Amino acid sequence: MMEPYHNNSFPNSKSFLKAGLVFLMSALFFGLVAALQYVLPGIGKEVFSFEKLRPLHVSSAVFWILMTAMGTVLTFLQEIKPFPNTTHRLVKIQFYLFEISFVSILVSYCFGVFGGREYWEFHPIFSIPIVIGWGIFLVNFLTNNKTLKNQPVYVWMWTTGVVFFLFTYIESNLWLIPGIGNRLIQDMTIQWKSYGSMVGAWNMLIYGSSIYLMDKIAGNQKYSQSNMAFGLYFLGLFNLMFNWGHHIYTLPTASYTHIIAYGVSMTELFILGRIIYLWRKSLTFDRKHKHIQAYWFLYAADIWVFINLGLAIAMSIPALNLYMHGTHIIVAHTMGTTIGINTMLLLSFAYDVLGKKQAEIKISTNFKTAFLVTNISLSLFFISLIIAGVLKSYWQFNNPDSSYTLMLNTLRPYFYVFFVSGLSLVFGFMLLIIPLFKSK
User: Fold this and answer.
1) Euclidean distance between the first and final Cα of the chain, in Å?
2) Which of 103, 169, 256, 358 is deepest in the core (most CB within 10 A)?
3) pTM to 2 decimals?
């Protein structure tokens, strides 16, 4: 049996999760406004043009993931072993560095200040506090985890995620070196390589936290010490290094890197889904009930893992990827992964850390309604994007002489479903998020 988990108050690390929830609301708001512009082109363009809305939405979503992942790891580490006072002070500095820089980035977008990258679209000057802040995170982590010997798999995952994120983030800024930034193919290859590896790095933080939480709910270390969990870790490590290959099908690079990348990525998703599935079947009613809200989000993430796995298999076929690339199918895959998997897992952590104490947890009608509305809305959202993507792909390859405006008019009914389901999705998420701010 494992040592008892502590449920102490960790205000510094909880601040990360609450800030993360604010960025999630920001991502939902800007995403909804962008969806409205699909339905009513040009509306609000004077205030928020699409060139501003896209980075505001995407960056807010990335900041939600990073802040919540950092806060979760810091909280779970303290549940295992309390931090010394020096680490608490560094955690506070780390929080303010990220909070100020992330808010400043969103404000800069509103004023039209961009840096030129596809996802890290902010001015490169903001990279300085981010690198410093993550460096402090690395120091905080390694100070309290000096060895990997005999450690459960989640410590291995956290260590890998913290180290590799800093490395890949610095790598993503190599375009600032003229010899790299001036060479198109090399620049794009490094850009996508670093971005893909960066996603793998924060997935390590999220997957490690998921396994820790599963152990916590089960009351033992069956899953964190299992061969399957370490298999997921090593696949995730390989994926972190090579999963970028499927992003560059259109670049003149070796084709085998594309196939390897997608194969490993899909295997990783399958093993994660399998671990959660077996864990759910092993839980007793009492263990499940004590963490019922976190359990529901883990359950939802498991379902979305397999839904996205099916779409990923289709996208891994080069001939199909050629048709899918640049369509709403890619958006559906991104949204399904970011919302269906990562956000559901992150909300399970948020409810475990910020939710009511275990003895007080009772699944309310409001929670059930919000949970169902969120997942049903996400399903409609996902399906509408796939249908729109299929129709756009057909237009690209079969009606090249037809006007772009005519094609958009054909997609308009699906954009209406996309917007209405997005509106319902925001409503469901707000019902889930707001109660978490009542936590002290």
Assistant:
1) 31
2) 169
3) 0.87
